[in-house]
Amino acid sequence: MPDVEENVPQKDLGDRESRPCKPPTPGRSQEDESSQEDHPPGHQVSSTLSGRGGEKGEIGRVKVCERVGWEKNERPSSSMLLESKVKETMHSTFWDHLKEQLSATPPDFTCALELLKEIKEILLSLLLPRQIRLRSEIEETLNMDLRKQEAERGTLDVPHLSKWSSHILGILLSQFRTTFLKRHFFHNINILFHYDRGIFKVLGLMEMDMVNYTIQSLQPRLQEHSIQYERAKFQELLNKQPSLLDHTTKWLTQAVADLTTPPPASPDTPDSSSVDYLAPNEAVNNAAPLSPSMVLSQGFLNLLLWDPENEEFPETLLMDRTWLQELESQLYQLTIVASVLLVASSFSGNVLFGSPQFVDKVKRVTKALTEEFNSRPEEVMLTVSEQVSQEIHESLKNMGLAALSSDNTASLIGQLQNIAKKENCVRSVIDQRIRLFLKCCLVLGVQRSLSDLPGGLALIEAELAELGQKFVSLTHHNQQVFGPYYTEILKTLI
């Protein structure tokens, strides 16, 4: 990873053992309702900037907008399942009734007219202002007064109107939706009520697409509003309390000290024969002059090591504290998973770990078994070692390859169990390299950092990409809001 100093703070993994992997859910207490004088400055920043009784505030609203999706793969609750079942039953009843009306002699077009009216309304709502010609065509073709007269005479051509509607859908749909329409509904073209039902299903998808598009188009404005709002609220507090940036100043001072003080040599650092350690271009360059971006990157990394007992959390990051705790939990679990993968792959190499399917299986097993790692690490890693050893044995057997010898199996299990120890060298190295990756993400960007991963992290590339993107997004927004304050503080430090 070029141009990035490897000045990642050393982490005492023992501190992390004693606290929960996931942060507690924030909530309002009785103290939240009391006056500002009863709380330290940090609490006032959190509550006043929020204006909403939680720490996510406007940042949270923007993040919600980023995450809104109408096709999310969520596990449905029992109430959702019941609602879906009732909705499905009602829709099925309606379409059965429509089929009966159209199949009658003479046909009854009552429901068909209502459907055509609704199709017209939806199509018009999906048009952009510049689509004048298409709007005129829809108005003319679905002229409901004319269609009602045709229905009364029994000459309403519903199949033609259905085909015409699908043609308009083809013009409006994205490529994915067009393929979806062809795959699911065009083959039912001779079954009228199926065809109309399909059109309505696709129209529903189009409305979802339009909502998502609107949210995405508004997102920059929402983000800018969030930045201005948070900065203005913070400035109001700062005018009342000039000492409000004391903790932030101390945090940045520590970051400068970390960058200017050579890190202590670690006795547990393995030699090059056991683990491929850092490349030459990742060496520490203490002679390079400090820059504000370097100090901020170091400071943000230090937040992922924050002692929960330390009350001097930077005032400018109080609203992001819960998000940072979540990222710390993800980083911690990734450290364990990557350590297991690195140790296990050293015994079977590319024979098994060259298969994405096998790697994913080991990941799933490890993640599931390490949920309670913090409370009982030795017991958890004993279970992990036995399960991973069994997976390797069965996979080698299925491939017709020789199984691991008894000595290798015992060594594999032993090394996996040692990951439970806070001083384990593999775990320490993996932790440092993940933090180095995150630092590179802040300086170089996620995609460039992924192209030059430190050794031992290739098997968790997808997870690192997700973690890095979240970390960069959070810190970028924070710098946009509080950048002017950071600049003033750093003028006196570097």
Automatic annotation (TrEMBL):
Matching InterPro entries: Tcp11 (IPR008862)
A single BP term in Gene Ontology: germ cell development
Pfam annotation, one family: Tcp11
Disordered, as annotated region: 1-58
Biased composition (Basic and acidic residues): 8-20
GO cellular component, one term: sperm flagellum
Family: Belongs to the TCP11 family.
Protein name: T-complex 11
